[in-house]
Amino acid sequence: MNLAIVDLGYGNIGSIELAFERLGVTASLTTNAEEIAGADRVVLPGVGAAGHAMQRIEELGLRGCLRSLAQPALGICLGMQLLFERSDEADTECLGIIPGEVRALQPALGMPVPHMGWSRLDVVDAGIGLNSGDYVYFAHGYACDDGPPTVATANYGRPIPAVVRQGNWLGAQFHPERSAEAGARFLQAFLA
């Protein structure tokens, strides 16, 4: 298995790489468009700000590469948010692979922002390796619009898309690399 992790120079790359190593897959950290396009699987990680991430993608000349991938690909946390058309965060134009926008979470009683911690999932697509009732770990202050690509949600004052699927792309708002056995099942399903 040739797994490429897009190395934007920040974020949770090391923990994602280690999570795949625990599953028996050694990933290649890369910014090379040819390596990314030629990989069997691609991961777009992210922890940070949408504006900075898209600036790095543009500087590295990866927008077209990421948009044209045909193999299974996975965006994690900010990486999932970048799949959408636009983010409220610094009014950022994103990759536009999935219709919709990313909006700031609104704090509510007992639900501070950022949403940090374990939340229970409601899953509508059993093919993603997750089950309704699984708890996974979130750390985010922005969330994507709910819509047809949503295949799992968490409730945080409103339904939060926890996993989306659009064509060959999966997106996880939660951190599978920090979500224990449920996260490992999700990553294994992505590899399979």
Describe this structure in words.
- The protein is an alpha/beta fold and 192 residues long.
- The chain has a single domain, classed as Class I glutamine amidotransferase (GATase) domain (Rossmann fold), CATH 3.40.50.880.
- Helices cover 24% and strands 34% of the residues.
- The chain contains six helices and 13 strands.
- The protein has helices spanning 13-22, 33-38, 50-59, 63-67, 78-81, 180-191, and strands spanning 3-6, 27-30, 41-44, 73-76, 84-87, 92-93, 98-104, 115-123, 135-140, 142-144, 150-155, 159-166, 169-172.
- It has a nine-stranded mixed beta sheet with strand order 2-1-3-4-13-12-11-8-9.
- Helix 1 links the parallel strand 1 (3-6) and strand 2 (27-30).
- The radius of gyration is 15 Å and the shape is globular.
- The N and C termini lie close together (10 Å).
Q: Globular, elongated, flat, extended or rod-shaped: what is the shape?
A: globular
Number of domains: 1
CATH fold label:
Rossmann fold
CATH class: Alpha Beta
The first-to-last residue Cα distance is 10 Å
Q: Give me the number of helical elements.
A: 6
What is the percent of helical residues?
10-25%
Indicate the CATH architecture. 3-Layer(aba) Sandwich
- If you compute it from the alpha carbons, what radius of gyration comes out, rounded to the nearest whole angstrom? 15 Å
